[in-house]
Amino acid sequence: MPVKIEAFFHDASSTVSYLVWDTKTKKCAVIDSALDFDASSGRTSTKSAQKIVDFLTEQKLICQWILETHVHADHLSAAPFIKKNVGGKTAVGNHIPEIQKTFKTIYNAESDFNTDGQQFDHLFDDNEEFLLGNTVCKVIHTPGHTPACVTYLIDDNAFVGDTLFMPDFGTARTDFPGGDAGQLYDSIKKILSLDENTKLYTCHDYGPNGRQIAWESTVKEQRANNLHVHKGVTRDAFIKMRTERDKQLAMPALLIPSIQVNMRAGDLPPQEEDGDRYLKIPLNKF
Question: Does the pTM exceed 0.70?
């Protein structure tokens, strides 16, 4: 096999992070890492991310990339911790400035917060190819959940972020700023146009109806069984369903802290005059 994959489930946020490596060169990518954050105390921890670092080190892998599928609204990225400990270039889709401009206003971020994506080492264009060791990878722009969502196609594995969940849980919400149900439908069709044996890896799972946590499916399984977009579901029907469903959903518990950190590539806001860092709670904005 040209690549191997190890998944790490972050129970507190139901996030699945991935370590993917080229078996010949041992070069690897970390996808959607998670920082531990306790909202009630404001304390952070790198205990979960350390497990990725430890595994990477034990396997003698070389970190080449630290990838984000989008600016997450349900967990804080551990990208800076990963980079500090094992290196690697941080990267995200090139529509990240749209996210940054929107949320710089919402959070009234510092005046010198740049909204050109420069906090990341690389911004991927749609259909851009890049190397993971000797493995050619492709980036697919898949907006809808957010304007900047991307899917990473690595060999016959697609890391879809929040665009698709397991078939029995359906699809991502589209009611965040810049979200669009029609775009999400179109993005999902892009993913489901891949070879039917392509493996799909989702960023979250919530074990609906008490089933065991899972994160891997195939294009074939999603076409046949996805709760929201199985074969035969029209674009108009999907938009109607998704819009009505989103109105019933509560905001993610960590939305407010997550976005203001993740729009900075996982860095915390800058130190204030007392030397400490603070997260803001914008009132009546969401």
Answer: yes
